User: Fold these one by one.
Assistant:
Number 1:
Amino acid sequence: MDSDLLARYNYDAFTPEKFTPWMNFDQSPPLGERAPDFPLWPLTGGETTLSALWSTHTLLVVEFGSFT
Amino acid sequence: MNALAERFAPQNVGSIFIYTHEAHPGEYYPHLTSMEQKYRHAAALRDILGVTRPILLDALDGACHRAYGSMPNMTWIFNRAGIPIYKSDWSDHHSVANALEYFLDVTERRRGRERLAPFHVERLDYRNQDREAFYAGLARNGPKAVEEFRQAFG
């Protein structure tokens, strides 16, 4: 993995110069078009994908966040 | 959001939580440097903050989170074909419930053979802003998180 990207994404302090580069909602995928798929790791173990989850539900609500 | 997940589950609405980076790292929950640490923080989200929905970890470099705009607490709704039909730059259960009720009604109308075509809507929704509760949450992360937020936003 790109160590510089890892450090910038997992910033060590909530300062404007560190968090504002990640506020990119206006560049996020558009509604109405097939969305990008990614691997995800369940807390309970194993590996899955976002598409494996959306394809088994009528609708899938996805909240992004963290403890902090 | 947990209650919302339970309310809509019988209608085959899935709800998940994707663990990202630490938005407000502090002494007790510092910035992430490994997947092992990310699993520990995600377990705290479940065990301390009480998230009952399935929690899934994004890659350490935030590949999924970054592709979707990397806001700290956003919500998206996808249909079965993987098409996003709702996205909000903040998570608010009133807003999500309102959207789910609308989209489930669309599903019923389609079952009734109504011919429907999508169109785009822009809307400004409103979320609760309890500054005292927010600072109490920051304090769980450590004094550093409180001070950094205070310096950034007062």
Number 2:
Amino acid sequence: MGRRLALVLLPVVFLTSFAAAQVGADKRRSGYRDMGAALQKMQDDDTANPGMLFVQLGEQLWARPAGAANKACADCHTVASMKGVAARYPAIPKGGDRPIDLEGRIRLCRTVEQQAEPLAPESRELLSLAAFVARQSRGLPVAPPDDPRLTSFREEGAAIYQRRQGQLNLSCAICHDDNAGKKLAGVTIPEAHPTGYPIYRLEWQALGSLKRRLRNCLVGIRAEAYPSDAVEYVALEIYLMDRARGMVFEAPGVRP
Amino acid sequence: MTNVLINAPKTAKKGEVVEFKTLILHPMETGFRAGTNGRTIPRNIIERFVATWNGKEIFRMEFSPAIAANPFVSFFAVAGESGKITFRWTGDEGFAVEESVTIAVA
């Protein structure tokens, strides 16, 4: 009798534990979850999140014609069509062979389609447009494209992530994989999931791109930062987005 | 280009305490920092924020250089009569921004 019961129960136990493993499988934490309640509230409230100031600015720029073509973003794209775009970039543009991130895509549109002077990296205009586009993807899962041409870049990004660099001889992985959740001085080390970019960082008192964050980390480990148009940044971004695949996109994020 | 976000209730009961939240885009440059060329960046801050309810002042705040960029200000007021609430920020370099919201008090 006991054995028969065990035989009946076994698959049940197995199935429930399998289901539990599926639900509990995603242990990844967005940096949002490591922030205090006050900052989480700040991010969630669209009238308290300073990133929304830039989204509002981006919305104005979106409709403003520019360049020799005298075209606005809105002349080619609907706002609705921007849904999900930020959650899948970096990608390889049509006719290109190198991946570009969202800011790169906006700069490309600016010079090729609008025939206007390029927007400077980290400029308010560029970040505002990126924030406006990224806002349209809030709540969607991070979904990098399954483009086989991206594989080599993703692998390069993964290699950089594991490579020790700088005078402190640290890799990204040493902090963000091995020691994530622990403290670095007073700050919780996040798992480095790029789910909220461009972010409003209180320390910067400004909106900043993922590239700025990466450069910030490189300086932090006393490594030489790559030049601003280096493919290494985009490779890292591709790897990080792939690592965060399926996590909820939350731009514009607020971080301490 | 000025840029303001205001969170205010559209309706309120007479005598109710209502909260106003405001956020404005501004660098709040302290005047103590040096630029990349070594020269001091001139001070550029908001000096004063005033809120009026149908022209009557309900809240005023003096800013200082120690306040961070893009300042967020929230305050409370007792709902008196329906009408217009005007928020006005003034500061260095001729900075002046005005925004209004309407509220219906029943």
